Amino acid sequence: MAIPLVNLLNTIEFHFLQPLPCLSFDDREIMIESLCKKLRFLQAFLEDSQKNNINCPAWRGLETEIRDVAAEAESKIESELYQLYNEEDAPVEPCQSLHQILQQVTRDIESLERRILQIQIESNRNHSVEPPRRNAAIQNINADSSSKRSSEPNNVMVGCDDEFDTIMHKLISDSNSLEVISITGMGGIGKTTLAERVYNDKVVIASYFDIQAWTTVSQKHNLREMLCDLLRSNDTNRDVSYLASQLRQKLLGQRYLIVIDDIWDTQAWDDIHRCFPEDLNGSRILLTTRLKQVADYVSSGNNLYSMRFLNLNESWNLFYKKVFVEKKFPLEFEKVGRGIVEKCQGLPLTIIVVAGLLSSSSNKPSLNQWENVVANLDLLLDIDPEKKCSKILSLSYDHLPPHLKACFLYFGIFPEDRAIKVKRLIKLWIAEGFLKLELNKSMEEVAYDYLQDLVDRGLVQIDKWSSFGNKIKYCKLHDVLRSFSLREARTEKLLYVINENDNVHELGVGLAASSLDRKACRWVVSDQLSHIDDEPISRSRYMTHTSHELRSFLYFPHNYVFGVHRNSIILPYSKLLRVLSISESPEYHLPREIVDLVHLRYLALRIHRRASINNYQWCKLRCLQTLIIFDDWASFSPNNILGMPHIRHVHFSQGSLKHRHLPKLVQGNLQTLSWLSLPQRFQTEPDFKAIPNVKELGIYLMGYEESYLSEETWDLLPPISMEGLLNLHQLENLKFETYRFFPKCDIKLLKAFPPNLKKLTLKGTLFSWEDMTIINALPNLEVLKLREDAFCGSEWKATGNGFCKLKYLEVTKLSSLEHWSVDADHFPILECISLNYCRLLVEFPTGFGDINTLQLIDLKNCHSLLVTSAKNFQEERRDLGDDKLVVRQFYTLPKKIIDGWKPADTSTKWSATPTPID
Predict the structure, then answer these.
(1) Do 910 and 789 contact (CB within 8 A), yes or no?
(2) Of 147-156, 174-183, 278-287, which gets the smallest average pLDDT?
(3) Is the dihedral angle over the CA atoms 619, 621, 623, 628 positive or is it negative?
(4) Domain 400-457+467-492 adopts which CATH fold?
(5) Could you tell me which of 202, 232, 203, 214 has the C-alpha nearest to residue 891?
């Protein structure tokens, strides 16, 4: 595999050839460029041998040798750089030993080049195979940016209409008892897709059930996560018994539909089903599982449905939709395509993956390539469907270019069935060095293209679009594909997952004893592994066994409760470490040596208030690209972090990164900064010229207590001026929050918002509704989120010309809003409106009836009268022949609760919710 070669090339370009290289090589730059050219030749050799399906033993042996030489070269180069970067003087000049290492790497690569040419000559002489061309270009297989992107998820149901009708009929049957309906079948057969089709039905299901909720369980079930899913809550810090009580209370007296997806054992059912009240109102639970014994255990009566394979007609329809409709292939390919479909034997996941494999060549379709796929599938005829699925996944994986192989295998770091935030995934891919740099494109844009390509190939699923629907926000991997990626990643020594089945006491010894695990480049800890004696993190006996090849360490706790004392996890020590992600566990003892990990590109920490790290030399981390520090009221004063040459994304807790820490000059790479904490009263204007290229900015306005000023001094200062924001021409996403006990923000803040903004979030600002006319005037605003008393006043009267490009509007916890009137011209292209905890609002604005683009009304924890009003509005639209509008409701509050509720005094306080770290 060429992954080590891709990594080596990216490492050399990162340290020596980019606009702000970590090292200045002067006259030796020619040698570096020559080495990169030779590495690209080796890449071409590997890609051509894969493309031409060459099985010559000599070439296969060379592939293995290339992989080993590249991996060893990268380790030697970065080991030497580790010594240089830890020197006190800066800038660092390359020493003679590094020069010698690079010369030796060049000689090793040249030796491989000569052997390739010799094999080519012998092959031509013997006419045994067609050798790769010396000047073969490395093909960039990118998603076709001009192709039509479906607005629906990419796992649309095809076929099984009878099963759909049967389950729908059972869900709305006359039985008033709580019933459990199970869908069983092998992995990849479409259980979840069928459940989603039922769950998202906007004509019958949405109107029949008062509440709909969904949770995905997976092999290792977590009751707290299940409860949070069903409550639609991010508050994972709560006790399980409290969450269970909350869920039962919200479901009580309501007709509900609960979907429990991908359940693997009866214990998970026993843990969760006690939370479901058994009111005689026709509530239903829909469950999917691979295991018939689980379905038998939970199902009511004869409510068990086994998923069947697609028939030939349905299989062709699915394949046709993915290849001929989406990618617009010529119809002369149909005959070969029908042969391919027949060999997939009706398994939807297999059909989708094969369709994605063929679609990847949509720019230059080749019947020969399709016929080669048929030939490969012929070899799988006698294999049972599950094994056949695995083999076909291998076929699709083998056809990926090397850079996409690494990106695909990397999905194995995330827990099973976890929705993966695309922004986080992209930052990790960049830090790992998986990307091939492209002219006129940022690394984030290149990474997104990679993701889109994997989606188009059917290997990655879209879980959620962004608010305005033009970007993938969350993605996920089917568990069958994840199992495959883990097997391949471990075989390639790319990834090693440590879970609760590993013995904590034997961890260090066990990893040292296994050459496969010891040489794995990346470790993922998927459960709580901690010091037994709560000793401070240091170079303990566990660290002495850490692989010197280790590039990444990521920690995903299976169960974490904020505020509950947990011992610190075991931190590995490796001088080549690039990614250290432990933000999901609080650190009481952070080793000072962490700043010696000078190759770190991605660092995510959660620091407890008892941790003291102010005196650490953070500026030593000169390679850092992403820094995420979430501190639980810790005293943390970052020094020179924003001045690091490669820093791209910085995330701090509110109150940590204060205005006085802004350097005079921030490198132009910085794209994301949150939260920047500023006092609401300030003598001088913040100098935003230091962050000219920032695209996403979070600003937190502090009160005098957080600004370390006396109340008397505070009262003498003028309101802070934000006019410098107008100079941030790249800024697209602005988040604005205020100190919870401070009165209304100065109106001048609204006038400082730059005109290029596409997304604006306000929280606690207490602006007046009359001030909304200033936000109306933002010409490019597509998403507006008003949260927790962003505006105050009982009436919002929206009239006249307004948000010309707004597509998404969120209104959350505006405690004083009672009346809302809308003119259609005010929201001419609005697509979605989300209302949450608007408890005093009882009537949905009728003016939305004239907005033809409106597709979704999302109501959470709202007044029952508001829900009724919205549904009446939906019915009126249907009577006019428009059935595209969906009204979704979650946990509608009955009138008796509303009548007993009094709004808080918003002039003095508001309830704050911690903002999640990216």
Answers:
(1) yes
(2) 147-156
(3) negative
(4) Arc Repressor Mutant, subunit A (1.10.10)
(5) 232
More confident residue, 346 or 512: 346
Contact criterion met (CB below 8 Å) for 768 and 793: yes
Take residue 471 and report the two structure tokens written for it: 């970007």
What is the C-alpha to C-alpha distance for residues 857 and 842, in angstroms, rounded to an integer? 15
The rounded distance, in Å, linking the Cα atoms of 772 and 801 is 12
Region for residue 693 given its phi and psi (left: phi exceeds 0; alpha: psi -120 to 50; beta: otherwise): alpha
Residue 791 has a pLDDT of 93
DSSP 369-429: HHHHHHHHHHTTTTS-HHHHHHHHHHHHHHTS-HHHHHHHHGGGGSPTTPPEEHHHHHHHH
Say which CATH topology domain 161-306 has: Rossmann fold (3.40.50)
**What is the reported pLDDT for 421?**
95
Q: Phi/psi class of residue 51: alpha, beta or left (left: φ > 0; alpha: ψ in -120 to 50)?
A: alpha
How far is 611 from 276, CA to CA, in rounded Å? 42
| DSSP helix/strand/coil, 196 | helix
What is the chain's length? 918
Q: What is the pLDDT of residue 911?
A: 36
pLDDT bucket at 151, cuts 50 / 70 / 90: very low
Burial of 767 (0-12, 13-18, 19+ CB in 10 A): buried
* Rounded Cα distance, 877 and 885, in Å: 8
d(CA 647, CA 691): 12
SS3 category, 839: coil
Instruction: Measure the CA–CA gap between 124 and 113, rounded to whole angstroms.
Output: 17
Q: Report which of 817, 825, 861, 816 is spatially closest to residue 843, judged by C-alpha positions.
A: 817
* CA–CA dist 333, 369 (Å, integer): 11
Cis peptide bond upstream of 429, omega within 30: no
Task: Find, among 555, 500, 491, 501, the residue nearest to 523 by Cα.
Answer: 555
Element (H, E) at 608: strand 602-608
Q: pTM above the 0.70 mark?
A: yes
Cα gap 254→770, rounded to integer Å: 39
CA pair distance 786, 624, nearest whole angstrom: 34
